[in-house]
Amino acid sequence: MRADGRQGTRGNFLDTLPTPVRLRAAGLTIESEIALPGLPETADSNVDVRFGPGDLEHRDGLTLRAQRFGCTAIGGTRVAVSVWIEPEGDVVPRTVLPAGLTGIAYQRGLLPLHAAAVQVAGSCIAFCGSSGAGKSTLASAFGQTGYAILSDDLLVVHPSPHERLPPVAWPGPSRSRLDADSVSLLGEGVVPLTPFSSWDGKTLAAIGPAPVDAPYPVAALYLLRWGELGVSRLSPLEAAAMLPHCLRKPGWLEDSGRATAIRRLWLDLVARVPVLLLSRPRGAPFPLLLSAVLEACGQGREERPFS
Q1: What is the model's pLDDT at position 7?
Q2: Which of 96, 123, 236, 307 has the fewest CB neighbours in a 10 Å radius?
Q3: C-alpha to C-alpha distance for 181 and 134, rounded to whole angstroms
Q4: Which residues contact 158 (CB under 8 A, 6 or more apart)?
């Protein structure tokens, strides 16, 4: 049904579920009135965030407005979604889930990185970069060799629960968003779950084992760029200056009201874990890339999940 029970009234094209579902993502329990495919369900009764229909106009909201729909994160506890023109396919959940969680992370003083991430030896290795940098493709290549993908486009970093550990990341939306070129590069074993969308040219794919819902200490952060193959480590001072390039929706930082806490979390992260610049040519062999990544962050001798 529509959000108000009517059929297709202009400004109210949001499909809602008969009964809200509880899901897990980014270390948070979500109660959602709209379908958010790809997230594991939970019986946890302590709800952190609610997704549902609502007005986008809110004084303290962090708002994404697309051509046909939008969402607003409010107070770190609620994401209001509105659809005013009939959308194409699954564009609404594919967009409002990461956007809403990004706003919620900002409002809670967490660190929303524009990153894909994989689980290696009980830790998190993250790949940061702008759209088109190859984050999803590289994480998917790890997934094909048996590593669990923790996130595809949004990695929410939490403060460490223990002084001796670095900040941690929980699994988030982890279905890979891949364009046709990436699917071709990855080859066999990539099974698209959706048609290639006309709005971003990408399909969703589930690759590799599902991650366990648990906090993973961040072990390394890679900044991706195209060029000759090489890995270099940034100094802590250089890494500290990279925050605007690693955040998802960096323009929301100052509007979140939690900018100081988020900057402090970033400084703690880059002081404790290596931040590395990974340059690679387009079409580079994945075994070579994976070996370079693992060697550079000290995981070169880690036993592979399977060969």
Answers
A1: 35
A2: 307
A3: 11
A4: 27, 110, 111, 167, 168, 169, 170, 215
* Encoded tokens for 20: 């809200």
CB 243 within 8 A of CB 263: yes
Q: From the CB of residue 307, how many other CB atoms can be counted at a distance below 10 Å?
A: 5
Q: E strand or H helix at 271, and its extent?
A: helix 259-272
Dist CA 266 CA 280 (whole Å): 26
- Amino acid identity for residue 242 in this structure: M
Asked whether 83 and 95 are in contact (CB, 8 A), the reply is: no
Q: How is residue 291 written in tokens?
A: 């070996």
The residue whose two tokens read 């290639």 is 196
Distance CA 221, CA 178 (A): 21
Neighbours of 44 (CB within 10 A): 15
Q: Quick one: CA dihedral 53, 56, 61, 63, positive or negative?
A: positive
End-to-end, the C-alpha distance of the chain in Å comes to: 47
Q: Which pLDDT does position 162 carry in this prediction?
A: 85
pLDDT at 12: 63
- Closest by CA to 95, choosing from 85, 112, 108, 83, is 83
The one-letter code for the residue type at 154 is L
Low-confidence ranges of the chain (pLDDT < 70): 1-12, 299-307
pLDDT the model gives residue 2: 38
